[in-house]
Amino acid sequence: MRFGRYFEEFDVGAVCEDRPGTTVTEYDEHLFRVLTMNHHGDTIYGESEVPAKTPSKSEDDRGAGYVGSRGYKQGGTIVCTFRRKVMVPKVSYGENRGGEQPGRPVPHE
After folding, report:
1. Nearest to 67, CA basis, from 13, 6, 2
2. Which InterPro entries match (predicted)?
3. Domain ranges, residue 69
4. Is residue 77 a part of any domain in this protein?
């Protein structure tokens, strides 16, 4: 079982739904309200999009994937957005190391 994606599998423009959604309970809302003085009670969903990717200039076995994520509630109203840049191994990285990356979980029953 693979964990994550290789650089070649990052398709620019691809959108991945981050499921399942999370329903904010009364307890969650209470803690959040106490900390921030805001009020919630919604189901929050997330999705991530790959706006760009760039091969590494110094290492030929990896690249940088740019990921933009947004969270929205059940009616579609966006409640948060953020972008990040992640280092992603290429297929050659996995092949040179026996097909799996270090730190990937070993499936068991």
Report:
1. 13
2. HotDog_dom_sf, MCH/BMMD
3. 7-96
4. yes
The token pair that represents 64 in the structure block: 């940088």
For residue 66 the two structure tokens come to 């740019």
What CATH number is associated with residue 51? 3.10.129.10
Please write the tens of the pLDDT for every residue from 36-92. 766 676 788 999 999 999 999 999 999 999 999 999 988 899 989 999 999 988 988
pLDDT for the residue 1: 45
Q: How far apart are CA 1 and CA 108, in angstroms?
A: 10
- Give domain status of residue 109, yes or no: no
Distance CA 2, CA 15 (A): 20
Structural domains counted in the chain = 1
User: Is 104 contained in some domain?
Assistant: no
Specify whether the CB–CB gap between 25 and 34 falls below 8 A: no
pTM for the full predicted model: 0.61
Looking at per-residue pLDDT, the higher value among 98 and 103 belongs to 98
The single-letter DSSP state of residue 107 is P
Domain membership of residue 80 (yes or no) is yes
